[in-house]
Amino acid sequence: MAPRKTQAPEPSAAPAGELRDGFKFRSGRLCLDLPASLAARLKAEPKDLLETPHDLGRWLVAAGLAAKDPKPTDEDLRHARELREALYRLAVARLRSEGLDSKDRALVNRWAAEPPPAPQLGPEGLTWTRGGVHSLLAAVARDGVELLGGPLAERIRNCEGESCALLFVDTSRSGQRRWCSMSGCGNKAKVEEFRRRQRGEGG
């Protein structure tokens, strides 16, 4: 009997909302939410929201991967940042229909080969066993392998919001989603378009 595939936690297992504990979760996939932890990526001075190991612990909880802070180390933080940037570069390459960098692929594949957290049936539903920060990062990497190597890779989009570098998976029926969030960048764009029309009418 073939072994069953152990899946990474689904986004539905995570706490609800696009903004959680100071982090943005707008992509629909863990592997794209992690790169979003480098805010203002396109600006001259981006802000790393994973500045300390405690920040990484907060992100893992906000992502729904851990029930409480798993107490990452400085080395865990370094690994998470490396994985984050590799996932971002690979996703951008898919977005642009470019080749995938071999070093980035090797890094993501190495993490995806780590044992992932195991699903357990808790009193309130699905929970995930502790396997340390390594297993939680493995879950993110596996999500990346599945996305970047599957048919949904063609649905990776870059938000059209001004200066927004967030990536997301367009699961809309039309395939024409433009914004990482309608309540965020989408709303800002609509307000700006309205003001532009008002200025034109008054000119």
TrEMBL record:
Domain Zinc finger CGNR: 155-198
InterPro entries registered for this protein in UniProt: ABATE (IPR010852), ABATE_dom_sf (IPR023286), Znf_CGNR (IPR021005)
One Pfam family matching this protein: ABATE
Location of the region described as Disordered in the Swiss-Prot/TrEMBL record: 1-20
Name of the protein this chain belongs to: Zinc finger CGNR domain-containing protein
Species for this entry: Corallococcus carmarthensis
High-level lineage: Bacteria, Pseudomonadati, Myxococcota, Myxococcia, Myxococcales
